[in-house]
Amino acid sequence: MAKVRFLGHSAFEVEIGGKKILIDPFINGNPQAPCKPGDLDPDYIVVTHGHGDHLGDAVEIAIKRKATIIAPYEVAVYCGNKGAKTHAMHIGGSYPFDFGVIRLTPAFHGSTIIEEDGTMIPGGNPAGVLIEAGGKVLYHAGDTGLFGDMKLIGDRYEISVALLPIGGNFTMDIEDALYAAELLHPGVVIPMHYNTFPVIEADPEEFVSRLPDSIKGVILAPGEEYEF
Ligand code: NI
Ligand code: MN
């Protein structure tokens, strides 16, 4: 059994392989967040890229809970310099953790880290992530536009649940996310990265209603979870 709880925007808490893994824990400043950063007690935190709405409260939570941040190398080094325990990886790389395998995938986006005083720190390349454990595969696309190698990812890994951005402007919109879903052909798709801010407004009902019959669409309200 595995489950995934939506924390608003692109933030999720995944329970898989007996561990709790936060992905992109943007909680402070996230108008959809159903909890406070201090309520979360993960074993690991995956950060897909350096933007504030993904890096979020990762460092604070990691230090408080002695959790390990798993991120693309540059973002991992940044978090390590801030005092967090980290495990650096990069796109195409996989590593067997105690709960299962993490694999980073490409994402077409940026990853610059912007400090509170406006200082910009290069964050390397953004990523998506595959979490494989107990015969289940969860794919979090990160922030990305549509790209053809989603077909490669879909053919190579049998994805149980795909978390796909649908809000447009910074990422895929509904039209492109529908195309992505066909390339990835997961069992279930859960939309993310929409309606947090006016510029990424999108109707998740429209998205799930237009998925092919072979793919189940699940809309999670912030705080809701899905077992898979
Ligand atoms: Ni971003
Ligand atoms: Mn984002």
Structure, explained:
The longest helix is centred in the last third of the chain and has 11 residues, at 174-184. Helix 4 (150-156) runs parallel beside helix 5 (174-184). The chain has a single domain (3-220), classed as Metallo-beta-lactamase, Chain A. The radius of gyration is 16 Å and the shape is globular. With 228 residues, the chain is α/β, with parallel strands linked by helices. Helix content is 20%, strand content 29%. The strands form three sheets. It has a seven-stranded mixed β-sheet, with helices on one face. A seven-stranded mixed β-sheet has the order 7-8-11-12-13-14-15. Strands 9-10 form a two-stranded antiparallel ribbon. Residues 51, 53-54, 143, 170, 193 line the site of manganese (II) ion (MN).
